[in-house]
Amino acid sequence: MSSAAQDWDDRYAASELVWSTGPHVFVEQFAEGLRPGRVLDVCYLHLPARRRRLALQSAARAVAPGGALLVVAHHTDNLTGGVGGPQDAAVLYSESDVREDLDGTGLDVQRAERVSRVVVTEAGERLAWDALVAAARP
After folding, report:
1. Domains of the chain, with CATH numbers?
2. Is the separation of the CB atoms in 109 and 85 below 8 Å?
3. For 47, phi and psi rounded to 5 degrees?
4. pLDDT, tens digit only, all 138 positions of the chain
């Protein structure tokens, strides 16, 4: 097993609950009212730009007519102005980056913005910044 894989195994074994048990707030908002099986959610995909672009373009090709793609990730601004998430700028991105990645895929971007969410830390409530992009195939 790789060191990174062992690190993740150790992290999840050390605590009964690492993340919340409910759906992510933005996934829940976006999916509300949509037909099951019509949304592809690419929550917190953090890859270097070239690999991210390939992954998002592949995901876009998988969206059927009438279907939707949701991308939520720690925003580039989160590194200096938010809490949590990767501390490597090479794997962080903005909503503009996702728009560019999806250009030419045939998806209609319906929402692309930097959004905040409250994170409860040992020091109290803090804001985290995410990039959120919702797109649909006509």
Report:
1. 21-136 (3.40.50.150)
2. no
3. -135, 160
4. 667 667 766 765 666 554 556 666 777 777 777 677 777 888 799 999 999 999 999 999 999 999 999 999 999 999 999 999 999 999 999 999 999 999 999 999 999 999 999 988 889 999 999 999 999 999
- CA dist 121 and 13 (Å) reads 20
Residues 6 or more apart from 27 whose CB is under 8 A from it?
A: 41, 43, 70, 72
**Cβ-based neighbour number of residue 56 at 10 Å:** 25
Length of the chain: 138
Residue owning tokens 């006509």? 138
H/E segment holding residue 125 = strand 124-136
C-alpha count within 13 angstroms, C-beta hemisphere, residue 88:
6
